[in-house]
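Journal club side-thread
Mid-discussion, someone asked how the predicted structure for our own chain would compare to the paper's figures. Pasting it here so we can look after the session.
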Amino acid sequence: MKEKKIPHSSAVIEALEAQTQEGISRRTALKMIGVGGAATMMGMSPALQAEESTKTSSEQAIKVLVVGAGAGGIMALARLRRALPNASITIIAPNEKHLYQPGQIFMAAGLYTFDDIVKENQDFIPDDVRWIKDEVASFDPDNNKVTTRAGEEVPYDYMVVATGIVYHYEQIKGLSKEDIGKNGISSVYLNDLEKGTAQGGTLTWEWFGALKNAAASGKKPVAIYTQPATPIKCGGAPQKILYLSADHLKEEGLSAEYIFATPTKTLFSQPPIAAALLEVQKRYDSITNKFSHNLVAIDVNKKVAIFEEIYEIKGEYDEDLEEYEITEDKREVELQYDFIHIVPPMSPPQALVDSALGWQKGSAKGWLEVDDITLQHRRYKNVFGIGDVCGIPMGKTGGSARHHAPIVVANLVAQLENKPLPEKFDGYTVCPLKAGYGEIIMAEFNYNGLAPTLPFLDPAKPRWMWWAFDLYQLKPMYWYLMLKGWF
């Protein structure tokens, strides 16, 4: 475990004292780093959240099915049991282990081990809930039932879909999951949720070490960090690995030729955060951004990454519009590397893609077709979605799932009672962007733009306070408050 990067007490005091310049006292900051204060940081105290969860309930004896036992599924399950005391609840999920998936980044940074991020799912699934340790093979919403891989048909009156997201390394030509951890290739996302393993964090920490050793040998290695053209779990993760690994080398006075390759045209969707990340990049020499670049193939033996680049072509000048005609074209670009960190393309599970529940067209095809405000299915009113699987404009983070949970349960109960759906999702998501060891930009935003919980602090500024919260407080909050449905 990498301990030397954690600020010592004098550095802690200096960091807290720096907050006073923006209107927050050291005493207040210390309180905020406590569990109660940390809850306040993220929008609501546990007591208020518990009070909120009792507002909506029903005594009806119905069959409720939850599909998936990741963060979203477990959060929904905890709240459903309290809101529907007479319901017969079933959960379908193959994974007996539960991973605190945000912890894989800290594993990659050498600050967590696997044991720090894993618990038994039975700790969160009560005995009065029927747990089918299998996976849904097909959804039949017209007949209110699903079928498992083992062939069991499971009926429901209401269903919450929380299947999560699937990684597709095989969609990158020339790459397989077995290549991760070899020939300079790493991916922090590599895991097997069904088996409860998270090799990606460990392999990426080893990759950090190999990159540093290569830099210490005298040659400046080339390291590429990729982001796919699909929606991904935790959109900031590719850059987190970039900045943490660069800082890991910088501590020893070392560097590499860093290349960040992304299909997007900016570093972040929110302009103030994108501008702040450009400033972060100036800390580390030799970072090159390759915008509009999507990794499509790789030669793992020759260490060549092949990207599809979309570029603009300037045409003739239009006198009436007073502008040039712009068209787009694409070409293949080959980049040689010594080390590469790959984020795979991602999608919903195939069973959902093949069902009537997914969006049937456009870029959202296959993702769960829920209303982006109520999280109720747009065509099947007894179906709701939570977490990464939802086909909504944003929200593939654990922070979003936490906001989804009370909305889904309250609206499900309202639908059951033939009442107007009372709760509305504003698109809240949060991305704790690691600018380096000891600093995080806490990017909180919703459908309308930046939405910081603490508006008196500049949300685009890297802070040690957020690093301390993310590293020390968020994980126990996740295990003991969020998954219990109290926050």
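Post-session note: Residues 1-33, 44-54 have pLDDT under 50 and may be disordered.
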